[in-house]
Amino acid sequence: MINLDRYAATYGEKYGEHIEWLREVATAVDSYQDIHSNTDFRNAQLDALLLSSFSMTTEERVRMFEQLSYGDPGALLFSPGPSLSGVILNEAGSEAQKAQFYDYLKEHNCRTFFAVTEPNKGSDAGRLESRYTDGTLSGEKWLIGNGTRGDMGVVLFKTGNSPLATRAALLTKEMIDSPQIERRLLKQHCLRGARLSYLKFDALPIPQEQLLGEHLHPCERGLFSMIRTFNKMRPCVVGLSIGYAQAAVDLLLEHGKDAGIPQETCRHFNTILATIREVNLVAAKTADKEPDNMAYSSLAKIELDDLVKQIRPFLFQHFSKLQSDHFVHVRKFMRDSYAFDFMEGTHVIQKHNLVNILKRNDYVSPWSGQ
Ligand SMILES: Cc1cc2nc3c(=O)[nH]c(=O)nc-3n(C[C@H](O)[C@H](O)[C@H](O)COP(=O)(O)OP(=O)(O)OC[C@H]3O[C@@H](n4cnc5c(N)ncnc54)[C@H](O)[C@@H]3O)c2cc1C
């Protein structure tokens, strides 16, 4: 049973009911058998809330995702809604494409996917191998959340070799159901609710009106609009991880003493989490105001990944004391938290980003306020 008072002490009471529901279904969503079954976990109020995230600012979305992740990030990622496709549609979609996406979602409450990562090139959007030529798309994607379940999705590909040639398209249900797409669920160990999938496109026809950014200047619709989208997504992923870590730390603060878990260390984790939350909210606000500035979101991801890398060995060290039902969610966190390092760029890549930014003369430090 979730202790809503602890949740409220950090976040207020806004999403209490949703958090309880997400925690309730977490283990079932996560269970290996369910990955292969058609069990659908639906909650109409949560569906409506997630649908409303389509028109939220990054800051609003981050605050909401962090709190819902306190319930369970796996169950949250498995839920229907605009996912990260909504973010790129807001950045690069035409009004007609936004309406097409939103109206369908509203009517069908479906799942959606955002397909960037490829088996050979990872999530490096500038070097993707998927190609759009003569009106058709060919290529492979993997690690795509809800890729097998989504009725709609956005896919990234290249039309040529220059950075301006990275483009995206909105795929409709008819296109996704066509025989030119193969979809397969991948075997997964961590954060199974994400339902990571493999997709293969074999000369899938995509009409020009489904290409995002046709109404924008070529400089704005290529890699630059993708980078803006990633800058807005990253604080959401960090928020998911903060909410999950906060739930684990709260359980340790609530029940850990009786189990012999050192409370001073848990309080230390709690304090650092509060600081990282502040940094991440700065990242979210920056993504809204200066969408090209990735310094803060990379920094928040680095700090969070560092903290998780401290929490995990601590939990392993005391693993024998974490066997009671009180700590089911903590044990789940120990496994799932590996996935967060990879989502939206690994720790190493974020450091690489930050070092490049620090080398620039116009860099303003998040800490100095200068
Ligand atoms: C739960 C989950 C959900 C996901 N959902 C989606 C989704 O919905 N859609 C989607 O498109 N993708 C998704 N992904 C994929 C994810 O975005 C990528 O895995 C992530 O961005 C990391 O990129 P990569 O796989 O290219 O790894 P890489 O960047 O290739 O890194 C691989 C490893 O090499 C290291 N490395 C890379 N470069 C260097 C270097 N220069 N120096 C030193 N070390 C280096 C990295 O730190 C890492 O350990 C998901 C992944 C997970 C785990």
TrEMBL record:
- Per its UniProt record, what SUPFAM superfamilies does this chain match? Acyl-CoA dehydrogenase C-terminal domain-like, Acyl-CoA dehydrogenase NM domain-like
Provide the Acyl-CoA dehydrogenase/oxidase C-terminal domain boundaries.
221-353
For activity, the cofactor(s) needed are:
FAD
Q: Which GO BP terms sit in this record?
A: fatty acid beta-oxidation using acyl-CoA dehydrogenase
Tell me where in this chain the Acyl-CoA oxidase/dehydrogenase middle domain is found. 114-202
InterPro entries in the cross-refs: Acyl-CoA_dehydrogenase (IPR050741), Acyl-CoA_Oxase/DH_mid-dom (IPR006091), Acyl-CoA_Oxase/DH_mid-dom_sf (IPR046373), AcylCo_DH-like_C (IPR036250), AcylCo_DH/oxidase_C (IPR009075), AcylCoA_DH/ox_N_sf (IPR037069), AcylCoA_DH/oxidase_NM_dom_sf (IPR009100)
This protein's UniProt keywords? FAD, Flavoprotein, Oxidoreductase
Q: Does the keyword Transmembrane apply?
A: no
Cellular component terms (Gene Ontology): cytoplasm
Q: Which domain of life is it from?
A: Bacteria
List the Gene Ontology MF annotations in alphabetical order. Answer: acyl-CoA dehydrogenase activity; flavin adenine dinucleotide binding
Classification via PANTHER family: MEDIUM-CHAIN SPECIFIC ACYL-COA DEHYDROGENASE, MITOCHONDRIAL (PTHR48083:SF2), MEDIUM-CHAIN SPECIFIC ACYL-COA DEHYDROGENASE, MITOCHONDRIAL-RELATED (PTHR48083)
The UniProt entry's sequence similarity note says: Belongs to the acyl-CoA dehydrogenase family.
Q: This chain belongs to which protein, by name?
A: Acyl-CoA dehydrogenase
The organism encoding this protein is Enterovibrio norvegicus FF-454
